[in-house]
Amino acid sequence: MKGLSPLLKSFLYIIGGDVAIEVGIELINSENEDITDEDITENIKERIVQEEREVDFEPDDTDILKLNTVRKTLYKLYSEKLAQFRRIRDKSTGWFIYYWWHEFDMLEEILMEKKKTIENKLRERLEFEENNYFFSCQNCKDTKIKYNFDEAFELNFRCPDCGEPLIADDNKDLIHFLKEKIVSIENANVFKDFNN
Predict the structure, then answer these.
(1) Domain ranges of the chain
(2) Angle at CA 57, nearest 5°, toward 56 and 58?
(3) Model-level pTM?
(4) CB of 5 within 8 A of CB of 190?
């Protein structure tokens, strides 16, 4: 039986918890055969019983694992580009049968794409913070509402809730934090610890 790399296992867990790991194991071990969501569900159940493991995939239920849970997990993997399927209509029932396979060899590209997306979002936020002045009400500090200069100007620099003056906020700490995160992500090599 093939296993999952630590990186893949971690990513699967983030996507769908322990169920995603179990589904991943079934997908990787069925590379040379067609496997349906029903087969995956039954294989997982059989493996859990054979290994005499205690699992709680379906809390407050007598069933170890429901087909619907596996299907939802497969669709999560599909949306993350880690699984693909083809569907065929069963001529006798008219229902569609879905055959699944993994795309785990795409993991590195997927993670690099996610890293780039996060870095871009941080850069956008940094640019927004650097190019705007912000104001907040000291009296309503618990609400954490910030107004940019245009919004504060429209409000005549008065809090719309209590009428107190809006005071300029110092966002230097946030700008510093964002810059550190960007550098950290640029220098991160998510694969170095997992490729050994």
Answers:
(1) 6-102, 112-187
(2) 90
(3) 0.71
(4) no
